[in-house]
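Pipeline run #58 for the internal structure catalog. This entry was flagged by the ingest filter as a single-chain record with no existing model, so it goes straight to prediction. Upstream metadata was stripped on purpose; only the residue string is passed forward. Reviewer on rotation: M.T. Logging verbosity set to normal.
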Amino acid sequence: MSLVRRSWLLSLVLLAGCHGVQSALDPAADQAMAIDRVWWILVSVCSVIYLLVLVALAWAMLRARRRREAVAEGTGADRAWQHGLVGWAVLVVGLLSWFVVIAFLADRKLHAGQPDLEIRITAKQWWWQVEYLSADPQQQFTTANELWLPRERTARIELRSGDVIHSFWVPALTGKEDLIPGYTNAVLVTPRRGGQFRGQCGEFCGLQHAHMALDVHVVDAVAFGAWQQRQRLDAARPGSESTRLGLAVFSRSACQSCHAIRGTLANSRLGPDLTHLASRKTLAAGALPMSRPALERWLADPQHYKPGNLMPAVAMTPQERAALADYLMGLQ
């Protein structure tokens, strides 16, 4: 491969990393923009310092013979050089102090402010439980592995862990925040651009750490309100023989012991809430796309697609599995 072609490929890779649903260099919220400003300041200043150090090194090498001759003659003191080193030390201390200040101000942007919306996210091995909170219990609801946010409004996201240390990170929207068992953290998000983004656990939390994704949707206030209304509804009732059989299979199997479906007797919180499962983009926190064939494969052997997860393979006939998949795909 020619050098020119390699250079072009490297440029494309670098550009790809600066954009997209999971890029910290393509900020779409106030908090990510604050981090982005700090990042560019640090990179710019440190690049200039690096170049100055190289220039000083080259200058010192060119003056090496002159310095040796001066030392041999007993006139090695170079006051201008000493003053320059003192000035350089003062400059470095001043820059580091400035870095501390701008980093502190950026951190306040992530944590200080008046929220319009309260959300609680609990990280588990290996998925995200997302609860939309309200003073009115009737307005609260729970979903999983998806986060919907209204544009131009500030959401306060309370962060908890259900097992080990995790880390909440949506690079395009906000900074990284740890979720520690027994401790509650919080972060603010004020989206300024609509679209779909991707979050990821940023702290190694076990075998499936890399397969713990969070789909984030930023929409306008009207679309967000409509989505909230749909999420508060109970699950759709089965309307066909197959979906009725699917509900019966769900109710008499281990599925009901781990999952909740509002409007049915299933109310466990061990696994993700399935009330509106089919409205999500993915299955198992990004392990599979949301589709009926993928869902049926997941039901048949969840350990094949996400080894180590806590969902067992529930024994059922192919007919029962197909009916259960029909029922779950109707939960929009």
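catalog note: The radius of gyration is 27 Å.
catalog note: The chain has a mean pLDDT of 87.
status: ready for reviewer M.T.
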